[in-house]
Design goal:
single chain; alpha/beta; Spore Coat Polysaccharide Biosynthesis Protein SpsA, Chain A; 12 strands; 25% helix
Length: 344
């Protein structure tokens, strides 16, 4: 059972990271909005030998609504929901966030890890959108240090997506010798992710020499990560090295935590089907205009970009695809009928 797996996790983390186990306090607190309680999801047949799936997400007051919708979508579509353990990373308000998750998902196996923003504050430079400059946006770089060493593999999900397929299919991909897996988009203009200063430097572009394949863009909002290989290869420090160059030596990119990942991993990721990251539904990083789906099947809808579905729905100006996010919204509004309540 997931509870036994969770209890067996041995926390081995640096002093600047503190893990707090899940509680079952059903009270929301602080200034956070109220959310409905989701139904309890139980394992189907054939789950006795199914693997435990570790999923990492961030939690903060701004994106909490999106995170809870993502959790609900994952549980609703997987055949073995009790085998899924969530690892949430948060800064503050820490305890109200924990209570809110437990109130919406009383039977959820989860842990929350406190992330010290000071760790990256001195390494972050301004980008094209303020949300990309928040310390928690960089927490994915530190998952291998934050999560217990007994967690050898994790799926990282952003907080602005919903999964409409069994997440076990994504979990089951064979990474082989790769550190991470993600959908690649080689049609994208890769040079646009770095500044002219980067490309004119005699040394910086050589970072892509000797890669397994030519460097292509991939979105870091959906990644399957081999934490054992990450730790062994010192990849956190490699990413930090590029952040330090950006901060202290030369402005080589404009898009927050994404370019360091491209610099370290582009051309070396395990290719995952595009169905697992139908990204860009939030539009660009400046205007956030409506966008359509990419051609092909869909297992995951991702509102990356400026426009978030909950904000556009609240404003009464939703994009057409925002309606696909709405069924997973757990926000409690006065007078709303609870869609999960039993009919009388």
């Amino acid at each position: 059972m997931p509870g036994r797996h969770l209890a067996a996790l041995t926390l081995v983390a640096p002093a600047w990271l503190i893990a707090v186990a899940c509680c079952t306090n059903h009270l929301t607190g602080g200034d956070l909005p109220a959310f409905r309680e989701a139904p309890a999801f139980r394992n189907g047949r054939g789950c006795a030998d199914a693997p435990t799936i570790n999923i990492a997400m961030t939690l903060d007051a701004t994106y909490l609504r999106g995170s809870l919708a993502g959790v609900l979508s994952i549980l609703q579509h997987t055949s073995c929901p009790e085998n899924v353990i969530f690892h949430f990373v948060a800064t503050s308000p820490f305890h109200p966030l924990r209570r809110t998750v437990a109130a919406s998902f009383p039977s959820l196996s989860f842990r929350i890890y406190r992330f010290d923003s000071a760790l990256v504050r001195g390494k972050i430079s301004s980008s094209v959108r303020r949300a990309l400059d928040q310390p928690l946006n960089y927490a994915r770089i530190y998952l291998a240090d934050l999560l217990p060493r007994s967690v050898r593999r994790v799926i990282y999900f952003d907080s602005d997506l919903v999964v409409v397929d069994d997440v076990a299919r994504l979990w089951g991909i064979d990474l082989g010798h790769h550190v991470l897996g993600a959908p690649e988009y080689c049609h994208a203009n890769f040079t646009a992710y770095f500044t002219d200063r980067f490309w004119s430097d005699p040394d910086f572009p050589r970072a892509f020499d000797g890669r397994e394949r030519r460097a292509c863009y991939f979105n870091t909002g959906v990644m399957v990560m081999d934490l054992e290989k990450w730790r062994a290869g010192g990849y956190t420090r490699r990413l930090e090295g590029w952040m330090e160059i950006q901060k202290k030596a030369a402005r080589i990119y404009e898009l927050g935590s994404l370019p360091p990942f491209l610099l370290v991993f582009a051309g070396e990721v395990k290719r995952v089907g595009h169905r697992w990251n139908q990204h860009g539904l939030g539009g660009d990083n400046v205007e956030g205009l409506c966008r359509n789906l990419h051609p092909g099947p869909v297992s995951l809808l991702h509102w990356s970009g400026k426009g978030k579905p909950w904000l556009r729905l609240d404003a009464g100006r939703p994009c057409q695809l925002d309606g696909l996010w709405k069924p997973y919204d757990l926000l409690r509004r006065r007078g709303d009928r609870d869609p999960f309540a039993a009919d009388v």
